[in-house]
TrEMBL record:
Residues 194-221 form a coiled coil. The chain crosses the membrane at residues 224-244. InterPro entries: Spore_YpjB. Keywords: Coiled coil, Membrane, Transmembrane, Transmembrane helix. NCBIfam families: spore_ypjB. This is Sporulation protein YpjB.
């Protein structure tokens, strides 16, 4: 009887843990959906409807993040800032539609980055980011300062889409190193010269490649292994207990058959 109680207790603890995890996942799934719907509506130019989605997003994020403390302070700060920019873009008169889409996309990716610790959506931005950067390098090699500035602005705009996300997914020291390179190139662009900037651009290219290589190198969620180990442990414990009871029962039956004089 005691063995059964122990097994039931283990199963109960396991599934209570799953219940808490499921509730957390449920709220994040809802936030993901709201951010995604807001993005789709923005793409179709339905800005007022997208605004309502973001207002609902803010309400849930505040309830789960502040009241229930489901998010870290960094996650709260980063997503709040991304949400503010996205909402402002939808209410700004005369803003370029593409700029609106980029701001809402940044929020969408940041929300996913919290929920997806492995293979987040922002990792799929590798090609557009690297293509935009290669255009900057090509302009620098041509020695065309005007073209260089144009391409650099385009790269910075594209990079801004994933910047909130990488602050969530990537260790702070790596983000700071990458951002410092980008800030330097942007701030001192007026001193453009082909020889000087190629060295800086090559350093930035190396950082960008490392960024995407590291986020894509391991797509196995450790929580999956934890679930497998816990589940396997319970199954093994249960089977061991059942086998022991069966063995004990067979021994008792054999002893009864033999009788006291055998």
């Amino acid at each position: 009887m005691r063995g059964k109680l122990i097994i039931l207790l283990m199963v109960g603890l396991l599934f209570s843990g799953f219940s808490v995890l499921a509730e957390s996942k449920s709220s994040m799934t809802e936030l993901d959906q709201l951010a995604d719907e807001a993005l789709q509506l923005t793409r179709f130019g339905r800005f007022e409807e997208a605004k309502k989605m973001l207002e609902r997003f803010a309400q849930i994020f505040s309830e789960k993040g502040v009241a229930e403390r489901q998010f870290t302070m960094d996650e709260l700060r980063i997503v709040t800032a991304a949400h503010h920019e996205a909402l402002k873009s939808l209410t700004s008169v005369g803003l370029n539609p593409n700029d609106r889409i980029q701001k809402v996309t940044a929020l969408r990716l940041a929300t996913d980055a919290i929920n997806s610790k492995y293979q987040p959506l922002w990792s799929e931005m590798e090609r557009p980011i690297m293509n935009a950067f290669n255009d900057v390098k090509s302009a620098a090699l041509e020695g065309d300062e005007n073209l260089y500035n144009t391409e650099l602005n385009e790269f910075l705009s594209t990079y801004s889409i994933i910047q909130p996300s990488i602050k969530i997914s990537v260790p702070v020291e790596k983000v700071q190193r990458l951002d410092s390179r980008i800030t330097y190139i942007d701030r001192y662009r007026s001193t453009f010269s082909e020889q000087k900037w190629m060295k800086e651009l090559e350093g930035l290219e190396d950082e960008l490649k490392k960024l995407f290589a590291e986020i894509n190198k391991d797509d196995t969620d450790p929580s999956i292994w934890w679930v497998m180990i816990m589940t396997g442990g319970i199954i093994i414990s249960t089977l061991s207990y059942v086998s022991w009871r069966k063995y004990r029962g067979q021994n008792m039956q054999q002893q009864k058959r033999k009788g006291p004089n055998d």
